[in-house]
Design brief:
Layout: E1 7-11, H1 15-25, E2 31-35, H2 38-47, E3 52-56, H3 64-73, E4 82-86, H4 91-100, E5 104-107, H5 112-173, H6 180-210, E6 218-222, H7 223-240, E7 244-248, E8 254-258, H8 259-275, E9 283-291, E10 294-301, H9 319-325, H10 335-345, E11 349-355, E12 359-367
Parallel strand pairs: 1-2, 1-3, 3-4, 4-5, 7-9
Antiparallel strand pairs: 6-8, 9-10, 10-12, 11-12
Length: about 375
Amino acid sequence: MDAEKMRVLCVDDEVANYELLKAILAPQGFDVETATGGAEALERIAVKSFDLVLLDVMMPEPDGIEVCRRIKENIGTCNIPVVMITALRSRKDMVQCLQAGADEFLSKPVDSHELVLRCRNLAKMKRYGDEVRRKNEEMKAVQKMREELSEMIVHDLKNPLANVLSNIDLVITDSGSLSERVLRSLRQAEQGATALLTMITNLLDISKMEEGLLRLERRAVSMERLVRSVEAAFSSQAARYGKKLLVDVPMDVVVEADQDLLDRVIQNLVANALKHVKQGEGEVALSVRTADGKALVAVSDNGEGIPAEYREKIFEKYARVEGRKLGLSTDRGLGLTFCKLAVEAHGGFILVDSAVGKGSTFTLAIPQGRITAING
């Protein structure tokens, strides 16, 4: 970084003072401009980029402290180093300059060697900082482009997959001439395609929730009806693999929520629990209770459990990748990220309690709101 490219603005209401600064800095390769007061300095800074501002404190309105404050409060100029040049010596004056955001002080009369060194060091730091911020913005732009491309691809996968599912369902419905073996294969294909569609939908909704773009369709939701529909969706699957799904839900619990999102959250938790219990001896318990104005939904299993060091990470977006690197078998996918964001979008929270070899309990809390009964 060459000194001649470092741009310095010297601000002083006394011509002799800023001419002296210019006479010292210009021969050292600095590109020096001058301003005769605070108002002119702010105008210059608004239209041109500077690596450093040398600012006299004692000037007519606005004085140096006020000019420094305005430079530091403006997001477009706050990174410019400001050196206060002053004859003031009191602690109070120094504190005021620091409160305004000053980076350095130089006392009058100015030592030319000290002036050059400080200007060069601060200007270099400004340039390095600008370069880091520029590269960071470029990386953010590239990352955003990748995320938008991924979202577009995922979105485009959704419709063809839905068509596959509808055709499988059509064949199963009209299956009079098909053997049991073919039907079994079709049901497995349907199950896999349904899981894939769920993952795609979760990915899209995670992206929307992270950007604050997902709108909740809130209405009165009966937890008894919701939980029973989840039970109906998974009971045959659980029985097929020799696993038990136990449900305990009172009839009078109502929440104000987006029914589709809440249904998918509970389905994700139940599906995960069934996946992580052993065939023939696995049990999953789905229960609902109320406390402190919240509906508490608990999904418990007697599966392998989650290591303590991994419990805080399982809700993170890339926890699955990290889990694999650690050699953990408790990969639970993006479903838990979706669950956490969906529950938090309702103003609630989700917790996990687990013991390795004994099982896990996921508890989500949804505020009941003011609704106490199902409309209609």
